[in-house]
Amino acid sequence: MIWIKRYYLVVALVLSLLGLSLQYYAGDLGLHYKQVQIIESGKIKSVDVLSPNALTPLANLASSFLITLAISLFISVFIIKKLEVMESESRDKQLLEINKSINENVFDSLFKTLVPEEIYSVIKERIIKSHLVRKNSVWLYDFTLTDDGGIELKQTLKSELHNISNSNYKDDYGVSFKTNSDISRTCVNRFICEFNGKLVADFKREELDFNDGGTKKIPLDIPPGEYADITLVLLTQYAGDKVLDSYYTFHPLIDATLIANYPKGYKFSIFSSFSSPIRETSSDETSSVNELRGGVLPGQGISFVLSKIKEGKKVPE
After folding, report:
1. CB distance 233 to 269 below 8 Å
2. Model-level pTM?
3. pLDDT confidence tier of residue 305, bands split at 50, 70 and 90
4. Does residue 103 have a pLDDT over 60?
5. Average pLDDT of span 153-181
6. Domain boundary, last residue among 129, 158, 190
7. Which of 1, 45, 181, 279 shows the smallest number of beta carbons within 10 Å?
């Protein structure tokens, strides 16, 4: 039975060819003359009549049987195989769901013994169930002095947005910030999204400007295991000659480099709440490079300060 299911197409084809051959053979047998006795006017008379070959009905019957058998075999085995595939897929799906449920229950039970349930529920929702992770971020902070005595900051934030789940991430990517009109004013200057080297989105300032802060959502579609390149440019104007601001990450973050460029006579400093340390690796009179190597949890961030160096005070080497 197994070999029939495996080679049912070949078997059906052979049976069909045999049936057609018998049909051709039956038609090739033709008719022949046969002498029969009839009674005509009270007398027995012999006459010749055309009669089909005795094998013709048998050949036609066998031909019909083989062709019908071939069609029935093809349909039956085809349906059986389709049902088996559907049943197998359904069974595999059920097994995956069972395994997932078992793994989650074991994982939950284990971690609940290590940390309080209230803490674990936050970790589970914000980190374990997170679909996205940002990697290899580069933050470029360019500070310039304005004509009215204030400071303008151009933030160019680049990162790889990785989908670490097993399904497509098809949702809105949110860009959030707050602004205090008495101290600063921020606007989104540009947002660029690239996927596999192709431009997915490119919004300019006139399309994204909202001056009182808030959240801007951009639709994204990232397959599992893939990532999109995100570039966000923010412009912020600060009143006065000192900057005190903050940056927080919404998604988990792995590795980042912050490069600050500022006018001569100013000093740039960072105060971090990251779970991994961010360290200054180089600096001079007008620039500073800080590097983060490791992971950062959602909601963690930095406060950065740009302040004027008092006269007679040297910048620490």
Report:
1. no
2. 0.61
3. very high
4. no
5. 81
6. 129
7. 1
d(CA 303, CA 272): 6
Do residues 9 and 150 both lie within one domain? Answer: no
d(CA 78, CA 55): 34
Q: Which of 137, 152, 143, 175 is nearest to 293 (CA)?
A: 137
Same domain assignment for residues 120 and 254: no
Domain boundary residue, one of 99, 129, 159? 129
Domain contains 266: yes
User: Which CATH number fits the domain that encloses residue 218?
Assistant: 2.60.40
Say what percent of the chain tops pLDDT 70. Answer: 68
Residue 317: count of CB within 10 angstroms of its CB: 5
The CB-side HSE value for 86 (13 A sphere, CA atoms) comes to: 6
Domain containing residue 101:
1-28+54-129
Residue 127 has pLDDT above 70, yes or no: yes
User: Are residues 110 and 162 both part of a single domain?
Assistant: no
The two structure tokens encoding residue 138: 């580069």
Does one domain contain both 186 and 252? yes
End-to-end CA distance of the chain: 84
Q: From CA 228, how far away is CA 134, in angstroms rounded?
A: 10
List of E strands, the chain: 31-40, 43-52, 132-145, 151-163, 169-178, 184-195, 198-204, 213-222, 227-238, 243-248, 253-261, 266-272, 278-283, 287-296, 301-308
Kind plus residue range of the DSSP H or E element containing 84: helix 55-112
